[in-house]
Amino acid sequence: QGQLVESGGGSAQTGGSLRLSCDASGYSLMIRYCMGWFRQAPGKEREGVAAIDSDGITSYSESVKGRSTISRDNTKKTLYLQINNLKPEDSAMYYCAAYRLTDTWLCRSLDLGEGRYSVWGQGTQVTVSS
Predict the structure, then answer these.
(1) What is the DSSP string of 25-92?
(2) Who's near 45: CB < 8 A, 6+ residues apart?
(3) 111 with 84: CB under 8 angstroms?
(4) What is the C-alpha separation between 128 and 14, in angstroms, rounded?
(5) 93 against 105, higher pLDDT
(6) Does the structure show a pLDDT above 70 at 15?
(7) Does residue 1 carry a pLDDT above 70?
């Protein structure tokens, strides 16, 4: 099983933008995987912020809806999360995660809960200053 490696985090100011990337090059059939972005701030539980299925259908948490875009490039084996209009409350460690359904060839599921995600990256830190 391959690894997921996040990048693109860093410091930004309120109102700015960041684009996070998740390298899934260890997965020969990335298209089969349900994928998502999660984040965890100090002292808080990890929360799902965005999910995407094999067809590119997406789902977002209310906290980022309208200012974030999750996307995937199955050829480049990369997952992305663009966050615009950053807020201090977006500061967190961001993780990408993936799982594969066993009863279907492609992912037809959108999951913002972490229960089914079996593969996790190491995280990339996002810090937003006011």
Answers:
(1) TT-TTGGGEEEEEEEE-TTS--EEEEEE-TT--EEE-TTTTTTEEEEEETTTTEEEEEE-S--GGG-E
(2) none
(3) no
(4) 6
(5) 93
(6) yes
(7) no
Closest CA to 9 of 130, 114, 129, 125: 125
Task: pLDDT band for 28, please (50, 70, 90 cuts).
Answer: confident
Tally of residues, the chain: 130
> Is 57 in contact with 72 (CB distance < 8 Å)?
no
Name the pLDDT band for 29 (thresholds 50, 70, 90): confident
Instruction: Identify the residue whose tokens are 């984040």.
Output: 39
**Rounded distance, CA 52 to CA 45, Å?**
21
